[in-house]
Amino acid sequence: MDFNTDFPARKIPEPSAEAMPQTTQKVVMNIDKILDEARVLGCSDVHFTTKISPIVRLHGSLRKLSAYPEMTDGAIMKIVEQMTGGRNLENIKNRIDTDFSYVTKRGYRHRVNVYHQRGDTAISIRLLRNDIPTLEDLDLPPILGDFALRPRGLILITGPTGSGKSTTLAAMIDYVNCSKSAHIITIEDPIEYVHEHKRCMVNQREVGDDVESFSMSLRAALREDPDVILVGEMRDYETISAAITAAETGHLVMSTLHTTSAADTINRIIDAFPAHQQNQIRTQLATVIVGICAQTLVPTADGKGRVAALEILNGTDPVKAMIRDNKVHMIPSTIQSGKKDGMVSLDQELARMVKAGIITELHAREKSTDISEFERYMKATNPV
């Protein structure tokens, strides 16, 4: 991969002598300083792996922090030791992949994953916003606010890794927090956005520290008098089953999946269950589904950032019938014709954003799920 080291508009500040000694064999980098530099540049992620300088992701592209030396396993472990200790550090030394949150001395939060490759340690760090963005800040459609105020059911935010799912969920939780009185429980690994008590009481549980697993915490949450439950990720059959049960029993459940469209999301949930249970889960899912938002981040036309392009499925009665009757293949066409119900397909949204000058056609084509549909909307007078 060719890493572009020329950052637009700004240069990376030169590291201090303390942060980067002259001899790479005994390098002890100041992780707070590196993270602060990355934040000033507007980066979303920082990576440390052996035999290359630290890497950052800026507006979706990987770039090398060439002011720093190539990393060694020893140098990476020194960085790990600056960020965590105790059981996390013990797990890492035992070569167990480990997730945790890290707060710099300036109070900025980060989501950290430490893993191993070719026998060496590597780190992936996501830079998080300290403030919780609103739906308006993120330019998200009002229907997501409508979903968030439903009294019960299941809301899913989906998309590939790094597509902003956690940020969208945080904005929806904050919308609830500001709009009505409720008890919100979040189950996260790790906690990314810290919510204050506003109109709601908000209890945030971190997997590993506060509870053993997502599924265990979901089952326990039913005894904790919640109104809204946020599940950071539906990773397995047990968590999916517990989330649907929680939604069935009168709670609003929000969660994420790594799927790229609403139809794929429904199929992924159903396929997680044994064949003999799939008819039952179709009926349960049809009963509880409120809506699905599948999102991806696209570079802006001016090259100064990224913007979310969304596909939105509203759980209307016809949609529920399609899920129940195993006609998920009909959902994409329902989304395309569902504007009056707040629905929009990803290709419709991409075409609209190109015509509005928000993104380029090249980037839209890269994110399109159906090029022929995208081209049809591009030729139309109004893409949605």
Give the rounded overall mean pLDDT. Answer: 91
Question: What is the CATH topology of the largest domain?
Answer: Rossmann fold
Percent range of helical residues: 25-40%
Cα-atom radius of gyration: 22 Å
What characteristic shape results from the CA principal axes?
A: globular
Strand count, sense and barrel status of the largest sheet are: 7 strands, mixed
Domains, number: 2
Derived structural class: alpha/beta
CATH superfamily descriptor of the largest domain: P-loop containing nucleotide triphosphate hydrolases
Structure description:
The chain is an alpha/beta fold and 384 residues long. The chain folds into two domains: 24-127, Beta-Lactamase (2-Layer Sandwich), CATH 3.30.450; 142-344, Rossmann fold. Helices cover 35% and strands 22% of the residues. The protein is built from 14 helices and 13 strands. It has helices spanning 31-41, 73-83, 86-93, 142-148, 165-179, 214-221, 237-248, 262-271, 278-288, 317-324, 331-336, 346-355, 361-367, 371-379, and strands at residues 45-48, 55-58, 61-64, 98-103, 109-117, 120-127, 153-158, 183-188, 201-206, 228-231, 252-257, 289-299, 306-314. A seven-stranded mixed sheet has the order 9-8-10-11-7-12-13, with helices on both faces.
